[in-house]
Write a structure and sequence with these properties.
- There is one protein chain.
- The chain is α+β, with helices and mostly antiparallel strands and 328 residues long.
- It is built from six helices and 16 strands.
- It folds into two domains: 70 residues, no CATH class; 162 residues, Exo-inulinase, domain 1 (Jelly Rolls), CATH 2.60.120.560.
- Helix 2 packs antiparallel against helix 4.
- The longest helix is centred in the middle third of the chain and has 24 residues.
């Protein structure tokens, strides 16, 4: 099986080229996802706050030896992650907490609908303009792909067009991961999580195994080097590699053979970056901050593995969000 790596993909400005390169379809779709996540951030923060409040109430009930309340809170947390309130074994403190969350949720949702609608309108206009430009340039196959992508979004909704809507896994706390080595997860002062380790290479892996097709979506920052993602044989991708920070490292999920992508691996220290890794049965494609960074091809259909993230060689990560969603 031939494996290839694309060092420079469409949409990545070459060295010395203007950053105002014309966007392609993947650029515009990823731009939508990033802006949608920014709009929905109050909702995401609220969900995290509710889970945190459930955890604190569970600790309180546990200290009191109240088994029924502890079990009710565990069921509530599990159901909440699945998108529903269980309502089994309710007690007054839990009911009050849930009512507060529902009130806050209603207020937050009412303020976001106009922003979401405006984003869809603007993104639709950009796709229509892209289709027209590609047609004028005689790139008819690409223009038809844009038409197909836009129709899929108009028929099924923008957020369901490429993903089934199924969140396969999400980093929500210590109980959602298993550490490999002494990898330490803690709440971050600014929200989200802080990940660090005294060991050279460690990581946190999801508590479920995942087969392609799927997408890893992460918003993460490093204080220095090494933002490492894992799936398959071991390492999947490395940003800010300690040996050469500007070189993206992509590893084949089956053979673990490494492929360097010069000039595409650097993430600014201390700043949040949006990382997207799409894995299909035959390809791994990596983007950062809406820009394609590299891809490899191979046969990954049979790989069934946890997804992971971790620091290395003293780096400290701050993770605002990390999840895996099913794609078509």
């Amino acid at each position: 099986m031939m494996t290839a790596v694309a060092a420079v993909l469409g949409g990545i400005p070459a060295q010395g080229q203007s950053d105002a390169a014309k966007p392609d379809l993947e650029d515009l779709l990823f731009e939508y996802e990033v802006k949608k996540a920014e709009i929905d951030r109050p909702m995401t923060d609220l969900q995290r706050q509710y889970e945190g409040a459930l955890g604190r109430l569970k600790d309180e009930m546990k200290s009191q030896g109240n088994l029924d309340a502890v079990l009710a809170l565990e069921a509530e947390k599990k159901g909440f992650r699945a998108g529903q309130f269980v309502g089994e074994g309710d007690f007054d403190a839990l009911k009050r907490l849930r009512d507060k969350y529902r009130d806050a949720l209603s207020r937050a949702e009412s303020g976001l609908e106009k922003s979401r609608a405006a984003l869809v309108e603007a993104s639709t206009a950009k796709l229509e303009a892209l289709q027209a430009r590609l047609t004028q340039e005689g790139r008819l196959d690409e223009a038809q792909a844009v038409v197909k992508a836009l129709k899929r979004r108009q028929d099924r909704g923008w957020d369901a067009a490429d993903a089934s809507g199924a969140v396969l896994w999400e980093l929500t706390g210590a109980d959602s991961v298993t550490p490999e080595g002494d990898c330490r997860l803690a709440p971050d002062e600014g929200g989200g999580f802080r990940v660090e380790s005294p060991e050279k290479v460690t990581w946190l892996k999801s508590n479920v195994s995942i087969k392609p097709p799927f997408r890893i979506e992460a918003r993460v920052a490093t204080d220095s080097t090494n933002v490492r993602f894992y799936w398959g044989k071991k390492t999947l991708a490395i940003f800010n590699w300690e040996m050469r920070e500007d070189e993206l490292r992509i590893h084949d999920p089956v053979t673990h053979r490494g492929f360097p992508v010069p000039g595409q691996g650097f993430l600014e220290h201390g700043e949040m970056h949006d990382i997207q890794i799409d894995v299909t049965p035959e390809r791994v494609t990596i983007r950062a901050d809406r820009r394609p960074r590299g891809e490899i091809e191979g046969d990954y259909a049979a790989v069934d593995s946890p997804v992971g993230i971790g620091p290395a060689f003293g780096s400290v990560l701050r993770i605002e969000s990390l999840r895996v969603v099913r794609t078509e």
